[in-house]
Amino acid sequence: MHRRITAPGALAAASLLLAIPASAASHSPGAPGIGDPYYPAYGNGGYDVSHYDLRLKYQPVTDRLEGTATLLARTTEDLSRFNLDFLLDVSEVRVNGAPARFRASGEHELEITPKTPLGKGTAVTVVVRYSGVPSQQQAYGFTSWHRTPDGGVAANEPEAAWWWFPSNDHPLDKATYDVSVQVPDGTQAISNGTLQSTSSRLGWTRYNWRSNKPQATYLATLAVGRFDVTTGRTESGIPVINAYSKDLGDNYGAARASVERTGEIADWLTEYFGPYPYNALGGYVPNVGTGYALETQTRPFYSPRQFANGANTSVVVHELAHQWYGDSVSVAAWRDIWINEGFARYAQWLWSEHEGEGTAQEIADYVYASRPADDPFWTVKPGDPGPERQFDIAVYDRGALALQALRNEIGDEDFFTLLKGWPQRYAHGNATVADFRRYAEEVSGKPLAALFDTWLYQPSKPSVTAARDASIAARTSKAPGAKATAAKTPAQPKSWKKIAATNDVHEHGDERHGH
């Protein structure tokens, strides 16, 4: 047996170590990004938010926003500090009631160092007091805040939260929301979910909104201005709140004639996608100069430009389809964007069929035949388009074409079982394109890797043989007794111009970067 001799200095050091909690040495900073390959700095590591409570005051005249955000979260690792994504000026941060150190870093990071390190699995309450003028803030050279003549609007993809509340800004971290907004009397504040209450005092009115189902940060919205607000219920009983800026001018009638059909269209979509996943519904059209629409949860955002040529129910179909595909089932990473956009576009094709203006098959044939093989359209891979092509028209049209190919491969019964089953399987969660392929194989009992690869992942036009195998092709004309002539482009479906008129829905990716 060997006797171990310890020097006095070493003994003192050992005693000091014993005084430090055993776990403290293992605490480390949370990652400044959640790990998305397209946007490495978006979101944050080390914690998961379950609820946002936002108490705001907004002055339309100056575009000044003051807020107190309370985040309820739980740590997923031992944390010495953690980040939130945010741009406005912060005056105070508290973590579990105690003042915390904080500083801005990078393009949009708020670094928070709590008074004591946080162990894994700890329930955390974070309070952030802040203020600023959102329209004066930029990150990466762009802004997601829309200044309007009578207020402001937060609506953009893949990022909008930084301009109005601190968050873990990635679809992987969904949460419920209470949004309470104080605005001058005569002005309204529109947000997601149900309007719980309003109250007025000393020239200010407070609107209290609640989203009681998990919601991605980019799907949270705020619109302050002077609106005409309509209310009603769908045939199935879901409350509908729509809002239209009072100064839409010539677009007002067409906007209202479109968005007022929200309840009807949502009920129609349940036939294909199953029960509507939320307890609130609606849409809003603020007086913004941008051209896109966005599927902000329960209450889509529409640009007035969507209605410049008259009523446009197709864009309403697109954004409402997202409530199932994109909002309830959200992307696990932004490369999975086809899970959102291919399906919302395909819903427009189904609406065309419903309206008697061209079947989904006819539209698919037209898309395939009208784009020659050397069209750059075919170089975009809808299953992984890259951050610069995330909202390319190919993600929409080629993405929907892939769904028609899948439908023809597995048959209508399995296809529509799939469309309804998917939002149930991953309700209020996240999923990947690979998850969808596996689920399609499970439902159909068929191997589908080759079909998905051809239609979603190859940077080229699927061959005539592949198209024929998927029952998609340009028609050939053959007179009796004559050889078949070259393939002809099918006639343009009647609905095509209406569908194409909604192509601005994909332009927010470009506008976001100021292109």
Automatic annotation (TrEMBL):
<dbReference type="GO" id="GO:0016285">
    <property type="term" value="F:alanyl aminopeptidase activity"/>
</dbReference>
<dbReference type="InterPro" id="IPR050344">
    <property type="entry name" value="Peptidase_M1_aminopeptidases"/>
</dbReference>
<feature type="compositionally biased region" description="Basic and acidic residues">
    <location>
        <begin position="504"/>
        <end position="515"/>
    </location>
</feature>
<protein>
    <recommendedName>
        <fullName>Aminopeptidase N</fullName>
        <ecNumber>3.4.11.2</ecNumber>
    </recommendedName>
</protein>
<feature type="compositionally biased region" description="Low complexity">
    <location>
        <begin position="476"/>
        <end position="494"/>
    </location>
</feature>
<dbReference type="Pfam" id="PF01433">
    <property type="entry name" value="Peptidase_M1"/>
</dbReference>
<keyword id="KW-0482">Metalloprotease</keyword>
<keyword id="KW-0378">Hydrolase</keyword>
<feature type="domain" description="Aminopeptidase N-like N-terminal">
    <location>
        <begin position="50"/>
        <end position="219"/>
    </location>
</feature>
<dbReference type="GO" id="GO:0008270">
    <property type="term" value="F:zinc ion binding"/>
</dbReference>
<dbReference type="InterPro" id="IPR045357">
    <property type="entry name" value="Aminopeptidase_N-like_N"/>
</dbReference>
<keyword id="KW-0645">Protease</keyword>
<dbReference type="GO" id="GO:0008237">
    <property type="term" value="F:metallopeptidase activity"/>
</dbReference>
<dbReference type="Pfam" id="PF17900">
    <property type="entry name" value="Peptidase_M1_N"/>
</dbReference>
<keyword id="KW-0479">Metal-binding</keyword>
<keyword id="KW-0862">Zinc</keyword>
<dbReference type="InterPro" id="IPR042097">
    <property type="entry name" value="Aminopeptidase_N-like_N_sf"/>
</dbReference>
<comment type="similarity">
    <text>Belongs to the peptidase M1 family.</text>
</comment>
<dbReference type="InterPro" id="IPR014782">
    <property type="entry name" value="Peptidase_M1_dom"/>
</dbReference>
<dbReference type="InterPro" id="IPR001930">
    <property type="entry name" value="Peptidase_M1"/>
</dbReference>
<keyword id="KW-0732">Signal</keyword>
<dbReference type="InterPro" id="IPR027268">
    <property type="entry name" value="Peptidase_M4/M1_CTD_sf"/>
</dbReference>
<dbReference type="GO" id="GO:0006508">
    <property type="term" value="P:proteolysis"/>
</dbReference>
<feature type="signal peptide">
    <location>
        <begin position="1"/>
        <end position="24"/>
    </location>
</feature>
<feature type="domain" description="Peptidase M1 membrane alanine aminopeptidase">
    <location>
        <begin position="311"/>
        <end position="455"/>
    </location>
</feature>
<feature type="region of interest" description="Disordered">
    <location>
        <begin position="475"/>
        <end position="515"/>
    </location>
</feature>
